[in-house]
Here is the input.
Amino acid sequence: MSDNLQIHRSVYEVLKGAQEPGPRLVANWLGGVLDAVEKGRPIAYHPFTTFSEIMVALDVQPICCEAWDIVGLQVDPDHAIKSIDAAHEAGIPPELCSFDKAIIGSVIRGTMPPPSMIAQSGMPCQNAYITYQAVASLTGAPLYVCDTPYDTDEEGALEHWVNQYKGMISFLEEYSGKKMDYDRLREVVEESNRCVEYWLEATELLKLKPVPHSGPLSQGTLSGMMGFGTPEGTAAIKALLDELKDKVAKGETAIPDEKARVIWFHFQVFWDNALMSFMNEMGAVVPYVLFDDFRVEPVDTSTPEKMIRGMAWRALQAPMGKLGRGAFDAFIDDLLYAVDEWKGDCVILGAHPGCKWVTGAYGLIRDACRERGIPLLLYDVDLVDRRITSAEESRTRIEQFLTTVIDR
Amino acid sequence: MTALEELRQPAKTLTNPYIESWKEKGGKVMGYYCTYVPVEIIHAAGMLPYRIRATGSTSSDLGDVYTYRTMCTYCRHSLDQAMRGEYKFLDGLVALYSCDHVRRLYDIWKAGKVQPSATPFYFHFLSMPMKADGETEEWLQSGLDRFRRSLENNFQVRITDEALRQSIKVHNEKRRLLKSLYELRKQDSPPISGTEVLEILIASTSMPVEEFNQLLGKALEGLRGRDGFSDYRARLLLGGGELEDPEYVKLIEELGGLVITDFLCFGIRDFWDLVDEDAEPIPALAKRYLERVSCPRMIDHPRRQQFLMDLVKEFKIDGIIIQRMKYCDTWGGEGAMMEWDIKKESSPTPYMVLEREYLMGAVGQMRTRVQAFLETIGR
Amino acid sequence: MIVAGCDVGSTTGKAVIMKDGAIDSYTIIPCKPRPEETARIAIGEAMEKVGISSLDELDYIVGTGYGRMKIPFANENISEITCHGVGAYWLSPSVRTIIDIGGQDLKVIGLDENGKVAEFVMNDKCAAGTGRYLENQARALGLALEELSTISLEATKELVISSQCSVFAESEVITLVNEGEGLADIANAIHTSIASRLLTLVRRVGARKDITIAGGCAKNAGLIDVLGKGLGSDIVRLSEDPQIIGALGAALLAAERLRKSASAKEQGASVN
Here is the structure.
């Protein structure tokens, strides 16, 4: 077992003494996982769209499956590939989302600690349903999936959703053998409220022209994935926000001469961190990365019932959850909103080939951008598998596109 | 033409004389993509439910404009047909979250990119749960109520409980008749081939159910006297997702693999479970549609697997072939999970996944795989 | 008893004649446009080598391969999957996995303890990793196939060809040449890229030992070397030309058919 967790163990060893909030966040999470493995504490797998506050409050160690692979990728660029190939070898077809293939493959390879339970809020898409069923099949762990209402405006939809969310809490209670302590949950949620508040404030600052920071607010994603509701999670995003405020105060901008603002309407490419700086070198900044847009009200923690309702509602509005579930209108609306609010000159959608809920409606995105005269680049780039589109191909496509935008 | 021959006709074309005559008399036709759509409610509204196929499509060029190469070819061909106006006979579309491909197909329709004839064209998206528990059943009941009211408001009709009961009865009758048909296939020399059965199943979704029931009743009588197929190499179960091409089944059967039963959505999954005729209609429908033999869109794989294995025993199956449309995520995952489960059995049933596209190409390659599979089964 | 197997593939046609349980003769010829022609020429050449003048002298003929349904003189046709399994197992009963790299497809076959096909995977949707791919790459480097193979063994530097598409992989190779990379290293990279595709398929089928290779590419020492390293075990070499394994299996199955029908006749006779 320890051999298989070697990569993550080594990351923990390197980061555990860190003082900076970002590394501390990662170390805290990894430490928690390794501790749970050693002491046999319950571990719950969850996807990014299922926030971990209820697990943290129950003292169940959460593992955000995508985050596990993202950490692995930072050390070994082939980390995800090995897992993806393991999934292929087990009969999982290549066209599934590679994040999900990597998760299935990591379970097969034993490079993720086995789960005591799996909880999923039912978003964003079918690949997630399939993945966690496959993981449940492979590990024998109990699985709870919330049934997400397709159209939240439908009569009774929110009630149904809250019931499903409560079902997830009961499930976690049953398999952890603990009862939810709502005072503890309040602490955790007030912490995650702060996290979201800072995250929102940071994204607001990126509306400035010229922008103080270009690219993903990685601390936000990390906080969301690894430390939602923990002081370390909040500290990481707070540190980023303070840095941004500082830059604004000093008049520092991401690049000296901003020629184009790119709305990056998907996740960042996790294996190609230099892609963002490549765009910077061309004079293009990225004030908006899709899954940093966490526009949602704080959760009202005054009573347990209000708290649960607030958390449930937030899960529906959170990045990826909001756009993945339901009809495609929300995606187009948010894209146009982003262009307007963050003053985008163009949109780049580096879509993950397995992301069929996005690529399936490519034509609708094109029409919407064409109507508004927004230059659009749609291209394939896999977020974790560097074999699909090479770094070089990415740069060629983006360079060709940005040249046309900058020359306008 | 015999009743059986009549039943084999509708599969050949997109529409047929039954639909044409229905429309001539002023009747309305409601299109749907998935067997989770409760056809009883559509029927009780006095409309003809029609399961949308892409029969006759030869290319998906037009459809491809609005979507991407990773959308399954069935959806792309259907989108292409829609854009060419081939579905002008439809008055509306009812869909649900069958899979990511279909839901975006629905969004493209809804955005006005296709050519329906009815103005305004009726759209409805059912919030069909992906798991069965008490809570989701209540939610589905309210969803079915909303669907009923929506049809009433849009088409100025009344859908009475009595009408619903009648629709349930007549669809249950269809299901019973189809189950009798499948009983005949259990024989050592089944009187009907898998190809013919698929044609009959497609007919059941493309014509008025009352007429279908009549014809199938007659056909069953005729089949009882028919000489059975005995010259086959293996008894096969054909499973997978959407399959509307009898030629595909024919190719397998020509090589000696007689398709004895199936795990298809045009097949067993559609008709196996009846609706409770004694209960209140909407609750009965909600219960039946949630608890029926599930499609992999539902998250109860272990229960599906058990059903599949029971089928294998019941029909004395020698081998399972799962046909999977390329890019189909649902069957991609399910196919793998089935394989893992089968390999754990003490004597695993021979099993193969065949990847395919909507249009039957690469026939030589398919023949090699099927022939090799039949050779491994040993006869 | 004289039997024959005839394997009509997409790039080559093979025929094997067996007499009383041993290989009498065999041929490998490039394909003609029509499979019937390929089959006739192949069987004709094999017959000529051992002085057989008429097809009637052959007691039973099994056809296999891509063109198996078009072999007019075959008594029956059997898939190349089954035939490769039979052929390889006969030559080496310890074989459990057979990798067949054809002209235009890849197959991996897993055998059970009795040498029967247990499972198989095929990749015939694209040319990446096949004989055609190797030919194109060799041409891009200005080498003959045999040269590509031998030179790759001299590689010292690890290069990566990452493109999954054979057409784009060719461009990558040209880029590497233009960047001044050594031919030996590039040749090795080509083999590595094929191997990685194959390894996934091999593991998909369980990768049980002993593992062997059939098909023309089995003569490519450089590829075998890379594959063996990737699998962490030696690839077993078969004692006959690896290209004839399918036709050999077909001939063996022809003999088996004869034996079965002979014993059925005997039983029939004894009952009477």
Summary: The beta strands of chain A are 43-46, 61-64, 117-120, 143-145, 260-264, 284-289, 346-351, 376-380.
